[in-house]
Design a protein that fits this description.
By secondary structure, this protein is an all-alpha fold. The protein contains four helices and two strands; from the N terminus they run ββαααα. The chain is elongated and about 60 Å long. Belongs to the major facilitator superfamily. Proton-dependent oligopeptide transporter (POT/PTR) (TC 2.A.17) family.
């Protein structure tokens, strides 16, 4: 894929930064806007229930995978059209097409990881809190 954007050569391994940047922007918006609005609508102190939050994250993860499949289909058809399938020449398709899947995945991570953290903290017995948080941390970072 073409890795030039806005006149800059962007290294491919820097793409996973997109979900982190999105979470950096979305978490304050979610905490300051979405939760108070949901709190008014539902009457639940957390806005939506923890398991609903985790469910939203899992649905967004599935949507992210569907978007990734669509982007890969487009990438392959562009590569075939421009005869760059078996070539070391990059396809003329921009790598920014992958940004959509990474952005959706960042939102999914926000919902799932925050929901799991709250769920483990609220629902675990005192002796299991550190174990559940440790397992959660291990899964989130691997």
């Amino acid at each position: 894929m073409e890795t030039r954007a806005f006149g800059l050569q962007v290294p491919g391994p820097s793409l996973p930064v997109i979900p982190l940047l999105l979470m950096f922007v979305l978490i304050p918006i979610y905490e300051r806007v979405v939760i108070p609005l949901a709190r008014k609508i539902t009457g639940i102190p957390t806005g939506i229930r923890r398991l609903q939050r985790i469910g939203v994250g899992l649905v967004l993860s599935a949507i992210s995978m569907a978007v990734a499949g669509d982007a890969e289909t487009r990438r392959k058809s562009v590569a075939i059209e421009h005869n760059t399938v078996d070539s070391i020449e990059p396809s003329p398709m921009s790598f920014l097409w992958l940004g959509f899947q990474y952005a959706i995945f960042g939102a999914a991570d926000m919902f799932t990881l925050v929901g799991l953290r709250e769920f483990f903290y609220a629902e675990s017995s005192p002796g299991m809190k550190s174990l559940s948080h440790g397992v959660h941390w291990h899964l989130a970072t691997s």
